Amino acid sequence: MDSQLISELEAVGGELFAASFKGCDEIVIDQPGFTAKISLWGGHLTSFVQNSSEDLLFQSSNDGSDSRFGRKHFGVPVCWPWFGANSEFTDLPAHGLARYFRWELEDVGRFKNGDVKVVIKLESDKHPLIEDMWPQAFELKQIFRLGDGFQVNFSAANLSNEPVQVSEAFHTYFHVGDSHLSVVKGLDGLEYIDKFMGGQHRQKREIFPCTFLDRIYLNAPSVTYLDDPVFNRRISIVTEGTSCVVVWNPGEELSRERNDMLDEDYRSFVCVESANALAKMHTVGPREIYHLKMKVTSKTLMNS
């Protein structure tokens, strides 16, 4: 990494650390109002702690394993260019390629209001293994805006001369005091596909409790809320460019069967994922770029 980027990182209170996971670097930003961590392995925000409160994002302490690809549950992994299992090639990793490779730091600075800006990118032609699995060239970028909450702006450029069909998600693991007591609001009245129970259903009222769930809500609104009475906060998730919301928690029995999280981890997170999935996958034309955005803020629950 060049010295100019290191200087810019230091200017916003940041440091670069050699992380143990996959031997990749981790960016740590320490500001008076927040601390944030961005892993270059998988290119994602892994931690955001505001005003000395509990982390907004969950991190599992179990590294786990997924055949050729290391897997660890934390933060805001990006699922791209497919969400879930690859329907054509079952030996490819779940949830796409973006979260299994090392991204590069491209830019660091501040926005006009003082928020910290960190830009990272993933270029397919830098990774021969990507070219073996996804022949169409691409460049992905994420712009992290860190301040009063965090925002992730994701862009995907199709650099090939043919259209590609993709699905994607911000697979966000929100840290909660207890998933049994947490509540997801803003999805009542929507149709959803239930991956655990099967079939299509209509949501009635709020989602409670938030355990043993794998639901894809179709035609979702741009704002969803996660209420956490244990940490006494409401997390607001505002999105652009996505049409589905996935709510996922494996529950007690499935959590014990998995080798990529600890038995009790399911009680400490609820995934509220902003996605384009199932019939909402879309085509990106040659040389086209498309964008997804997610903004996350929190406030005291009793004032909500």
Description:
- The chain is mainly beta and 304 residues long.
- The chain has one domain: Beta-galactosidase, Chain A, domain 5.
- It contains three helices and 22 strands.
- It has helices at residues 3-11, 128-133, 251-257; strands spanning 14-18, 25-30, 34-39, 44-50, 78-79, 104-110, 116-123, 138-147, 149-158, 164-166, 168-170, 173-175, 183-185, 191-194, 200-202, 213-217, 223-228, 233-240, 244-249, 269-276, 282-284, 289-300.
- The strands form four sheets. Strands 5, 11, 12, 14, 15, 16, 19 and 20 form an eight-stranded antiparallel sheet that branches. Strands 6-7-8-9-22-18-17-13 form an eight-stranded antiparallel sheet. It has a four-stranded antiparallel sheet with strand order 1-2-3-4.
- A hairpin with a 5-residue loop joins strand 14 and strand 15.
- The chain is globular, with a radius of gyration of 19 Å.
Features:
8-stranded antiparallel beta sheet, Beta-galactosidase, Chain A, domain 5, 22 strands, 304 residues, single chain
Computed over alpha carbons, the radius of gyration is 19 Å
Strand content: 35-45%
The overall pLDDT, averaged over residues, is 91
Number of domains: 1
**For the record, what CATH class applies?**
Mainly Beta
Secondary-structure element pattern, one letter each: HEEEEEEEHEEEEEEEEEEEEHEEE
Q: Could you say which structural class the secondary elements and strand pairing correspond to?
A: mainly beta
Q: How many angstroms does the end-to-end distance come to?
A: 44 Å
Low-pLDDT residue intervals, each spanning 5 or more residues? 65-70
> What name is given to the CATH topology?
Beta-galactosidase, Chain A, domain 5
- Multimeric organization: single chain
Biggest sheet features: 8 strands, antiparallel
Please report the number of helical segments.
3
User: What helical percentage do the residues reach?
Assistant: under 10%
Give the second-level CATH assignment, the architecture.
Distorted Sandwich
Estimate the global geometry from the Cα principal axes: globular
